[in-house]
TrEMBL record:
Keywords: Signal. Residues 1-20 form the signal peptide. GO terms for cellular component: extracellular region. Pfam families: Defensin_beta. GO terms for biological process: defense response. SUPFAM superfamilies: Defensin-like (SSF57392). This is Beta-defensin-like domain-containing protein.
C-alpha cells in the first residue's frame, strides 16, 4: 500500500518533465531560447513559455 503514492508521484513527475521538453522544443522551433524567469539580454523579448518558470525569448 505504501508503494502506491510513490508510483503516483513518479507518474506526475514524468508527465511534467515530458511537457517541459515539448515546450522547449517548440520554443527552439520558433527561433527562441529558454531563459529562467525573464529574458536577460536587452535585445530579447518574450514570445511564449518553456515551463512554469522558464520564458521563451527571441531577438527583436
Amino acid at each position: 500500500m505504501s508503494m502506491l503514492p510513490l508510483l503516483i508521484n513518479m507518474l506526475f513527475l514524468s508527465a511534467e518533465f515530458s511537457q517541459a521538453q515539448t515546450l522547449s522544443w517548440l520554443c527552439r522551433r520558433r527561433g527562441g531560447v529558454c531563459y529562467f524567469r525573464r529574458c536577460l539580454p536587452y535585445n530579447l523579448r518574450p514570445i511564449s513559455r518553456c515551463s512554469n518558470e522558464d520564458v521563451c525569448c527571441r531577438r527583436w
